[in-house]
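Note to self: keep these together.
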Amino acid sequence: MNVGVDMIGLEYVSHEIDKGSHFIKRVFTTEEIKYCESQNNPVQHYAARLAGKEAVMKALGTGWGKGVKWNDIEVLRLINGNPYVRLHGKTKKIFENSGYSKIAITLTHYGQTALAFVIFFD
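Structure:
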């Protein structure tokens, strides 16, 4: 089992978004953007997904390096609202070679903070 956890301040994410759309397009997929923008407070949903992506990178043991790209990690929602992770590209290959086959993720946001916890398991 590998775990990753990350916490992000909403103020940081809001600041990055306010600088222009480059941040959103660089970090989030079209499906993530569509979901976040459909919410009453998009910033808290972007922040939770950013924390999720960073938690996945920590569980992978790569951080932002070794060919892992932000858009190769998607944090999406099932119909019932539960979050899940979908991987692409080199990130998917790294995960497939990790010996794990499943990813569990949970997201939360409270006040000015968003948190994500990820577990890789068989």
